[in-house]
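help with this.
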Amino acid sequence: MNDDSISLNKFISNTGMCSRREADRMIEAGRVWLNQKTAKKGNRVLPGDEVIVDGTKIKRKKNDVYLAFHKPAGITCTTDQSDRDNIIDYINYPKRIFPIGRLDKASTGLILMTNDGDIVNQILREENNHDKEYIVTIDQPVTEHFIKKMSGGIPMMGQVTKKCQVKKIGSRRFSIILTQGLNRQIRRMCEYLNTKVLTLKRIRIMNVELGNLPVGAYRPLSKEELATLRQQF
């Protein structure tokens, strides 16, 4: 096997077009051509090979950036550099990147940064029901009543929030896993129950975990993280 080759489904997935599983389905459906021949599952792509999907030639993306960033409090998740606290100037990355989704200014924790618009759209599509996990400290004791109400759905912004997983992890701390991202959702949910959020930290997005990444630091996603991330689309 040539060391410069790449599996066809991975080649297609790496363009941001779809996951490997979806690429396999396209190959099986005869929608993919490799060097002017109908492609088959298991084909590999060498530098210079021509890959055509649905009549359009596709190219391997180069220099895509995927970062996990530990956002500090006080930083705004905006690309508007007229905002003196914007996330772009704070990170000062040498390539143009942008955040996937947002955390409000007072919140901390994991946010993904990239220059790949395709993966942004895939992650943000609400129907994909992607998990996001947070650790929250409030100004009142975490009671069974509080957990039941938070997990069962809270009226806000003209709708009821989706059911979610809530677990007590301290006298005034809980973890919560959301599959939607309404504006200031956790803070509004707590306000509805007459509690105030003191700290809010996101520790996971899908399979990517914050871990022990220091506040204000970033790291590239590993190949394994990125591959698993794509498989969930």
Observations:
- The longest helix spans residues 20-28.
- The CA atoms of residues 154 and 192 lie 8 Å apart.
